[in-house]
Structures are given as C-alpha cells and as structure tokens.
Amino acid sequence: MKHLISIGDLDRASAIELLDTSSRMVATQERQMRKLPTLVGTTVVNLFMEDSTRTRISFEAAAKRLSADVINFSAKGSSISKGESLKDTALTLRAMGADAVVVRAPSSGAAHKLAHSGWIDVPIINAGDGTHQHPTQALLDTFTLRRHLGGEQKQGECSGSVDGSGLDGLHVVVVGDIMHSRVARSNVQLMTLLGAHVTLVAPPSLVPVGADVWPCDVLYDLDEAIALQPDAVMMLRVQRERMLGGGYFPSAAEYTRRLQLTTERAHRLPEHAIVMHPGPMNRGFEIAGGVADGRRSVIVEQVAAGVSVRMAVLFHLLASNAREES
Amino acid sequence: MTPTAAGSTADTTPDALLIRGARPYGEEAADVLVQDGLIAAVGHDLEAPDGAEVIDAEGCVLLPGLVDLHTHLREPGGEEAETVETGTRAAARGGFTAVHAMANTTPVADTAGVVEQVLQRGEDAAWCAVVPIGAVTVGLGGERLAELDAMARSRARVRVFSDDGKCVSDPVLMRRALEYVKTFDGVIAQHAQDPRLTEGAQMHEGRVSAELGLTGWPSVAEESIIARDVLLAEHVGSRLHVCHLSTAGSVEIIRWAKQRGVDVTAEVTPHHLLLTDDEARGYDAVYKVNPPLRTRADVEAVRAGLADGTIDIVATDHAPHPHDAKDREWDTAAFGMTGLETALGIVQHTMVDTGALTWRDVARVLSETPARIARDTDQGRPLEAGEVANLLVWDPRPSAEVDPEAHASRGRNSPVAGRSLPGANRLTLLGGRPTVRDTQLVAR
Ligand SMILES: [Zn+2]
User: Which sequence ranges form a coiled-coil region, renumbered to this chain (chain A) (predicted)?
Assistant: First the structure.
C-alpha cells in the first residue's frame, strides 16, 4: 500500500492489520512517554483546502507523536484561496521536500489526482475528498466498533484483545445525509469488508441514485431500523442548507420527527448497542443532546481513536516504506 | 458563393487525378477521374489523361468528404485551445471536407459580423469548408433571439442555429426560435439539458457517480427536453435537430417522434458510441464531457439507433481544451473531448467492423445527411461525374494507436489516446485539391 485514498485500497487482511496497529498505538499513548521516534526526520504536510480543524489537529497529533515534522498548509489566506491550483500546490510541496501529504479537499477525487497525476511522488493520505471517501474516519469508526463489540465480547465490556478480528455478525445502522456523505461511503465499504451488515437510513431524497448496488440495505424509516435491534447506530451530520438550497427535505422539524435519534428511540435499542457520530454534531437536530452524552455514546472515544488510527496509517505508509528503501 | 468552393484553389492540384481501384461506398471497385475540381468520370479502366497523377487505391473505400455538423473551432476568443487554422487541419486529417463551427465563441457568433468573420477565416485556412452556426439567443443568454435573419442572409448563409453548450430551456423562446427559422429553411440544433436538473452536474448519474461522489447528470435531464422539443416542433411544423443524443431513452423518444412524422433529426458523437461512465473511475478529466459518458446499455442503444436510422448522423462535438483545463481536479476541469481526427476510426470500429453499418451507411451518416440538414450545397454529394470533388479515400485495413501529440488539433484531450483504432486517411480532396495524403497534411 503506497497511498490511502479509498477503502477500496484495502483488503480484509490489510484493514485488520491497520486496526491491530492502531491498538498498539493506543497502548503507547497510555504510557508516560507518548512520543515514538519512528518518523524522526520525516516531514508530513497537512494540505487542507477545506476547513476541518478537528481532522487537521488529529492528523497533526498523530504525526507529532511519531516524531515527524508537520507543516500545515491551509486554504485560508494561502495561495490556494487565491486561485492556485491543486497541481501547483503539489509541485510546491514536492519542492519543499514533503515525505507524505495528508489532503482534505472539497473536490471528489482530489486525493486520487494527487496520488496518480505525476505531480508529486510521495504517499498521499486522503483526509476527506468531496463526497467521495474519508478512509481514516471509517477506520476510526470501525476501530471503536470493534473495541466495543468485536470478537467474542458482543455483550460485554471492552476488555479482552480483539486483535485479528473483524466485525463479523454485527449490524450497524447509519442514519442521515447519505448522498453527500463521504463517511457513509467509506463506512459501508469498510464495515462490510470486515463482515458487518450495514443498514442505511435516510429520506429517499438523500439516497444517491445508483446506491442500489451498494452492499447494504437502505431504509427510509429510523423506527423500522431500530426494530431490527442493531448493535450500533451512527448518526451523520445533516447540513441545514440542504433544506433551502436543494429542497432535500421540507423542514428541520420534519427531519427531526422522522430521523432524530431521540432519547426515546435510543431507549428501544438493545442493551449493548452503542451510539456513534463522526462529528461535528448538530445537537437537537440529528441527535438529542441526552443521547450524545448518554451511556451508549462512544462519540468522545471516536475522537481519541482518531489519533491512534492515523498514527497507524502514517506508520504503515511511511515507516514500512522507509524499511523497503533501506 | 458556396462555402465549399470558397478558398479552394488549384495551386498545387495536378491537372488531373486518377484514383484507381477504390471502392465507392465500400462496394464494387471503380476508377474515379478528378479534373478541374470536379469528378470528371467514374468507371472501369479509365484512361489517365496526359499529366494526370495516378493513385493506386486498391482496397480503399471511396466516400464523399465527411461533413461535421458539430465542431468547436474556438476562434474567436479561445485561440489557446484551437484556431480555425488548427481545427480545420484536424478536420482534414479526419477526412472532413466541411465543418460547422459552433457559436459559443468570444464574442458569441450571434451577429452577421461574427459569422462572416468565421467564414472568412475558414476561407483563408482552406483546409475544409467552414460553415458558421449562429447562436439562437443573444450571447447564448437564453433570453431573447439573436438576429437570425441577418445571419441567414449574410455571406455566411447560416442555416443551423444553436446555443450549444447551453440549452434553450425556456419553452416559449424555443418555440419562437423554431417558428422564426422557417423563413429561410433553418433548423434549431438543441443542446438538450434541463439546467435545473443538472446544477453542478459532473458525470452521468448512476452507480458510478454514486460511488465516486460526483454530482449526477441524470438521463432525464436530456430526455425531458427532447420530448418537449419534438412536441413543440410538431406543434409549429418546424425543423428540429437534436445534438449529441446520449441515452437509451432519448433514442426511444426520437423513434416515437419520427413515427408521428415530426421533422426531427438527431446526432450521436463517436465517444458516446464507444465509451461509458466507467471511464470516470480514475478521475481523469479527459473523460469529462457534456452530455456525459453514459452506461453500457446506453451505448448499445445509441449504436442500435444509428444502425436503424433513428439517429441520423454522427457528429464529433470536437471540443479542444488547453492542457491545464483538463489536468486538474474533476469538478473544476472543463467539459469536452477532441474528435475530428478519430471520428471515422471510431465509427469503423464500433459500427462497420461490427456489421451494424455498411460503408454506404457511413457516407449517409457522416456526409450526406449532415450536409442535407445544414443545407450545404456542395457537400455530401453523390460520387458521380459532374459533382464537386470533395472526396475521401479511406484505407480500412491498417490500425494504429492514437497519439494525441501527433494530432493537428491544438487539443490533446482525446478520450481514445493510447487505444488502437482502424483505418487511415489515404487521400482527402477538397474541390479536387489534396488536403491530406497518407495521413499527412498537404500544404497548399
Ligand atoms: Zn452541446
């Protein structure tokens, strides 16, 4: 694996290997000396052409804990916002001696273009491209799921090792704006690759035409999905602009009535079920505040997992490549 | 003055040219004698007059020079992408003796002055006839009619009007345009795309767009406009031409309209005969085009439609772009592909070599019918004595890998780069003068 552009770059074995490495990274983060010397002398560029403080900080922390130097190259106030192309930016980063580029971009396919256009020849990590893919988010979601529900401990606490295992037999419900969600696309691919069954729930106007061949079920009714007693429910952020600009749904009130994970709905989930959200949340819109902060919620844990998973990705792309070269 | 005769001179034309053994329309071999810019004789064992050049064309197919009804020459205003000179060189290399230059230039070809300027540039270049297409609405703005009559009566004798690149989406304006061009036997060539259904659209809406996260361009956005337009054309008794039809549903609507007797013609591009939306998977914007590449089922349907005559012609929608307009993220890249230099190769590959069309059909869809739709006088004519010698000698036997770097077009955005295509342009005659010999341009 030279780049991480899409979950399609992974097979089951390499996905599990990444999750297992993430577990080891978690262990290192529980030590007093959290910083590992692995990537000393390596420069990782965070190229963020779209605002996402959360994701950028997560990648930055991951790179720094592996002792890499980090350069943040953000759209705001930079040459990109003045019309410089992705290509010119890539040529600049190459000249600066970047060893890897983490890219977040509003254009679907931007990470693929960076990796395959001959503009720059270093590992590219997709930190979210348009409405296409967000593979590290799917990895951290999957990591969190596996930690809680993986292996043989479906009903239990997250105690024993889940290394080596997938998500076999789990049922995950993903709710919200599927059409515009790179998180949904990546998660459907990764979770099913690891043996989970995924059910998407959305108003029909927010399900893309062509999703009929995705390896998952699609429902329009959250209550119907909850009646299936899933092991986990992931709520996606829904942008209120989708009402006005696109007319995808009539009103916030109607959306909330039909699709909000309310306390009452959460109560109907099985005892062991967990609640996830990739953030940032619209409390009181797609998810009730009480559920976000409730006992089922693993939302804060997802954030912590993000750093470990991104450390694992950087480790696999950079440390193992360095080994091959020497 | 006809656009064809214009600009063609006899400077380096041999006194006479005897093409030996080519097969007119791919049928029985014959000799063709060209003299004084005309076909002087067609027959067997013709004598070569004194001073005549004899060309051995055994095994080659003889066709009337190809006629493209949909070419973006980019001049004026887009000279970085193409000029009349480079675009017509590309046309000649593709076997064309006439191209119809789309109106979406800068300034827009919406006045007699601009269309006459384009005509003049074509006459100066003299690689093929350049027939200007006039804009339907002022500045392609879709709000009020351009001075269609002035363009029709100008020296450019415009008969085809199109806002191509944009759809005349206002139904009242479309109705008025259809009615208005009846005065001079004109035709409205519609780029069928409902603008509201395609806001931000990047590629065909379907399974591939869902996976790639690119905004979809649904088939219905094309089909609903075509359905409306054929009904409008029927209602007002006017002539309608549908540009670059791309979906199975569009083929069905045209078939239905023709059965009702609507005076409608339709075109398909070479790329829609060959390629599908799967090409978008690598996010290589060379495959970004409008209308977008569709599904395999659509490709099969447009091939069948072309074979059974529902689709009347093949037109290239040749749309060259500078490298930078394509070497970028998909959603910021330009729409369009080059096509002039690969059109006949693609048609041979997809339609002739598969048995779906004969060479006589090819003469119909790539020369005779486009000329008839545009009311061109000396193009798409029979291969008979007395006709202007606008001819193509095509050797269907060799095949070669497409190398855009070797193209005469300024555009390098060929969707068939690296593919092998059959056929070679052995000789193209424009008014009896060779513009191409053995795939190479012949300077005047
Ligand atoms: Zn068009």
Answer: none
Q: What percent of chain A has pLDDT over 90?
A: 78
Domain count across chain A: 2
Quote the domain boundaries for residue A225: 135-303
CB contact under 8 A, B206 and A209: yes
Dist. CA B267 → ligand 1 center (Å) = 11
CATH of domain B16-62+385-441: 2.30.40.10
Tell me the per-residue pLDDT of B385-394, one tens digit each, with 9 for 90 and over. 999 999 999 9
CB spacing of B214 vs A109 below 8 angstroms: yes
* Average pLDDT of span B346-359: 98
One domain, residues A212 and A180: yes
For residues A120 and A171, state if they share a domain: no
* CA–CA dist B62, B432 (Å, integer): 14
For residue A245, the chain B residues in CB contact (below 8 A) are none
Q: Do A209 and B324 touch (CB under 8 A)?
A: no
Residues of A in contact with B208 (CB under 8 A): 210
Cβ contact, residue pair A131, B213, below 8 Å:
yes
Residues A104 and A227 both lie in one domain:
no
CATH at A259: 3.40.50.1370
Does any domain span residue A153? yes
pLDDT in tens, B124-149: 999 999 999 999 999 999 999 999 99
Tens of pLDDT, residue by residue over B215-267, are: 999 999 999 999 999 999 999 999 999 999 999 999 999 999 999 999 999 99
pTM: 0.93
CATH superfamily assigned to domain B65-373? Metal-dependent hydrolases (3.20.20.140)
- Catalytic residue, from B163, B277, B298, B317: name it: B317
Q: Would you say residue A160 has pLDDT above 70? A: no
Q: Has residue B395 got a pLDDT over 80? A: yes
Domain ranges of chain B: 16-62+385-441, 65-373
Ion ligand 1: residues, Cβ under 5 Å: B 164, 191
Check residue A325 and give its pLDDT: 44
Question: Which residues of chain A neighbour B332 with C-beta distances below 8 Å?
Answer: 85, 107
pLDDT digits (tens, 9 = 90+) for B59-82: 999 999 999 999 999 999 999 999
Q: What is the pLDDT of residue A150?
A: 84
